[in-house]
Design goal:
Elements (H helix, E strand, L loop, with lengths): L9 H54 L12 E5 L5 E7 L13 E10 L2 E10 L10 E16 L2 E3 L10 E10 L2 E10 L5
Antiparallel strand pairs: 1-2, 2-3, 3-4, 4-5, 5-6, 5-7, 7-8
Length: about 200
């Protein structure tokens, strides 16, 4: 008498487990790589967003540059702080929304600071038409790798500006770092003509 029920042999079971393992491993590899790419793109998107906000803000402020001098300060000046950080300071008619109630003219300062091997860009603002102290410097962008400014006037580029007459153009270059990769951003802004 023959037994009609047949089962799987040990070799068939082991072969099925091996094939299933290979398929699951490849599926896991695809999901893992998609997940890491998604995280990297998310981080890069954050940096693009920071750079866009910065360029939008400084572009608006520079296009609203107040050309007439107030007191002894130049309309626009730049240089290096005692700590070696770059700064850019100028008078603008574009003030922060919270300060608009006091007047439409302020002195804005962007300053690069390094602490604990992290370079960050800070922004502060002082109203010129009201008796208010300068606002506390607020962190604008953290984790800068490079930040440089150049100024153009009458066919020449300069690395800092200490002239009473503002330049015709300001070029801003910043480089952000994401997971060891550099992301460069460059933009230049044409300033209102001095009359």
């Amino acid at each position: 008498m023959r037994n009609s029920s047949q089962g799987f042999t040990l070799i068939e079971i082991l072969l099925a487990i091996l094939i299933s393992g290979l398929v699951l491993t490849s599926i896991y590899g695809v999901f893992s790589s998609v997940s890491s790419v998604t995280q990297r793109l998310g981080k890069e998107g954050e940096q693009y967003h920071k750079a866009r906000i910065f360029f939008d803000r400084i572009g608006g402020e520079l296009s609203s540059l107040r050309l007439s001098q107030i007191g002894e300060q130049a309309v626009l000046s730049s240089g290096t702080t005692l700590d070696g950080g770059i700064f850019l300071e100028f008078n603008t008619e574009l003030v922060s929304p919270l300060l608009e109630q006091y007047g439409g003219l302020s002195r804005v300062r962007y300053e690069l600071r390094t602490a604990d091997e992290t370079t960050s860009l800070y922004r502060s603002e002082q109203l010129l038409l009201a008796d208010l102290a300068a606002t506390e410097s607020l962190l604008f962008i953290e984790g800068l790798k490079t930040f440089t400014l150049r100024y153009y006037r009458q066919g020449h580029w300069q690395d800092n500006w200490q002239n009473k007459v503002p330049p015709q153009q300001v070029e801003v270059f910043l480089e952000l770092e994401v997971d060891g990769r550099s992301m460069p951003f460059r933009s230049s802004f044409v300033l209102p003509e001095v009359k």
